[in-house]
Amino acid sequence: MDTSTSETATDTKRDALTIRHTWEDGTVLEGSRKGDGAFEVARSAGFKWMRSVQLIALPRSRDSRADMYRINRAKAALEATGRFTVTVEVDNTQTRSFAAAEEERYERAAGRAERHEELSGNAVGRSNAAYQAARAIGDGIPMGQPVLRGHHSEGRHRRDLERIDNGMRRSIEEQGRAEYHADRAAAAAAFEDFRKDPARTLRRIKGLEADLARNTRNLAGKGSSGWNPEKFPHQREELEQRRAEIVERLEHWRGVVKAAEEAGFKVWGPDDFTPGDFLKYRGEWFEVLKVNPKSLTGPHIHENGPVVTRIGARFDWTWNFTYDEIKGRKSGEEMARLLVGALGLQMDEASKALADVDPAQQEEEHQRWTARRDSLARQRDHWAVVIQEAEARRERTWEKGDFARGDFLRHKGRWFEVVRANAKSITVPHPDNPGPVLAKAASDGRTATAPYSEVTGRMTAEEMAAHIAGEPVQADEDAAGAGAVTQ
After folding, report:
1. Are 425 and 469 in contact (CB under 8 A)?
2. Which residues pair with residue 17 across a beta bridge?
3. What is the DSSP string of 13-64?
4. Angstrom distance (rounded) from CA 108 to CA 90
5. Angle (nearest 5°) at CA 187 between 170 and 202
6. I need a labelling partner for 134 at 20 to 30 A (CA). Which of 100, 119, 214, 338 fits?
7. pLDDT digit string, tens, across residues 143-167
8. Phi and psi (nearest 5°) for 87?
9. Rounded distance between C-alpha atoms, residue 446 and residue 411, angstroms
10. Per residue in 195-207, pLDDT tens?
C-alpha cells in the first residue's frame, strides 16, 4: 500500500511535454521550462534551441515528413529520466506547396540579412566609440611619459593606462562582432542565389532523381531498404505520398534550371563534346579524352598549367568531370591554334636559355633545356596536325561507302589499314602499335575504331605500296601535304 502511494506521488511530479510535428512548423518540443533539464536531454536526439521561434525544435524539419527515429529517441531519453511524460503528436499532411515554402525561406533570409546588417552597424559604432574614448585618454598623456612612482599622479596615471587598455580591447572585440555579423548578413543576402545556383541545382536534381528511382523500386517491392507494400498495405500510402513530394520538388528545381537557361546558362551534356575538345573546370582547360553519359574523362586535375593536354601531361592519371561542374567548352581546333602560338613562344624562350648554357661546364642544365625544347616542339607539331586535320574535315566528310577492306585511312597524323568499315566508324589496328603506317599484318592483333568524322585522308592498298616504295602518289585527301608518309 505504501509502495502504490509512493508511485502515484512520483507520477504526479512528472512534467508533461509534447513533441508535436506539423508540415509547416516542423518538429517542436512544447511544455518545457527554463532550467527543467528537458533541453539538455533532447539535445542528444538532435533537438536545438531555435532563437527565431523561441522553441526547442529539430533543425530542418519544416516542410518535410516527421523524423520518427529522432522523435522516438528523444521521447525515450526524456521519459528515462523519470521527470517527464512525453506525448507525441504527428501530422504529416502537406499544408503548403514546396514553392511557397521556398519563398518563405527567401523572405526569412532577407530578414536575417537586415538584422545582421543592423547588428554589424551597431558593433562598428561601439568599436569606434571605444577607440575614440581610449584615444582621448591617451592624448592627455605626453608621449613617452613614464609612471612617476610615489608622485601624486601615479594612481590616476595607472588608472588611465588601464582604461586605455580596456577601451582598445573592447574596440577590437566589437570590431570582431561587426565582421561576424557582416559575414552573416552577406551569407543571408546571397541565400536565394545560392539555392538557385544552376550547377548546384543540377546536383540537387540528380539526388532527387535517385530518390525517385529508389521510391519506384520500393513501391514495386524490389528495394533493399525493407519496404514491402504488398505484405504491408499501409506502406503503399506512405510511399505514394513520398513520391508526390519528390515529384513536386523535381518540377520546382527543373523550373529553376529552365529559367536559368532562358537567362543564358548552359546545361552541358554528352552531345556537346567529342574527344579532342576542351572543357573548362575551375578556371583551367582540360582536353577531353572520353565522353561518358554522366561525365567527361580528361587528364588529372593535379597536372599544372592553365591548359592541360594529354600529350603535355606528366602522369597517365585521369579525372572524371561531371557535366554540372563544367563552365565552358572549346573545340580542339580552337585550342590548337592558341597552343601552337603559345608553344612557339615557349620554344623561343627555351632556345634562348639553351644558348646561354655552356654544355661543357653545365651538362645537366644543357640536357634539361634541350629536353624541354624538344618536348615543346613535339607538342607544337601535334597541335599543328590537329589544325590540319580539322581543316581537312571541313573540306571532305567520309562515310562507309568510301572505304574497302585493305584501304588505308589517315587519322590523327598516321595511316591505318582498314580492317572493317562499320556504319559509324572504321575498325583499324590499335594505335599503340608503333610506326607512321599501321598495317594489319604488322600489328599485334588488337584493334580500335576511328569515327568517320575524324578521318582526314584515304589511300588504296596499291597507292600506299607505291608511296612506300617512293613513287609519287596523289592521296585522296583535302589537306595539302597532309598525306606524306615516311618509314
Report:
1. no
2. 86
3. TSEEEEEEEETTTEEEEES--TTSSHHHHHGGGT-EEETTTTEEE-TT-TTS
4. 25
5. 160
6. 119
7. 889 988 999 989 999 999 999 999 9
8. -110, 135
9. 17
10. 999 999 999 999 9
CA–CA distance from 107 to each of 24, 57, 110, 161 (Å)?
A: 15, 20, 5, 48
Amino acid at 331: S
User: Using CA atoms, how far apart are residues 400 and 421, in angstroms rounded to an integer?
Assistant: 6
The residue whose grid cell reads 499501409 is 234
Stretch 305-311: mean pLDDT, rounded?
A: 92
- Taking the C-alpha atoms of residue 231 and residue 144, their distance in angstroms, rounded to an integer, is 89
3-state secondary structure of 246: helix
Whole-number Å distance between alpha carbons of 134 and 124: 15
pLDDT of 475 reads 53
β-bridge mates for residue 297, sequence order: 290, 320
Query: Per-residue pLDDT for 257 more than 50?
Result: yes
Beta bridge partners of 416: 409, 438
Q: Rounded mean pLDDT of the chain?
A: 89
**Cβ contact 41:51 at 8 Å:** no
pLDDT at 173: 97
Mean pLDDT of 182-191: 95
Q: What is the mean pLDDT of residues 8-24?
A: 78
DSSP state of 342: H
Please name which of 74, 76, 83, 79 lies closest in space to residue 56, comparing C-alpha atoms: 74
Q: How many residues does the chain have?
A: 487
Cell of 297: 574523362
Q: Which three cell numbers stand for residue 270?
A: 554528352
DSSP 194-206: HHH-HHHHHHHHH
- Render pLDDT for 266-301 as a digit per residue (tens, 0 to 9): 999 999 999 999 999 999 999 999 999 999 999 999
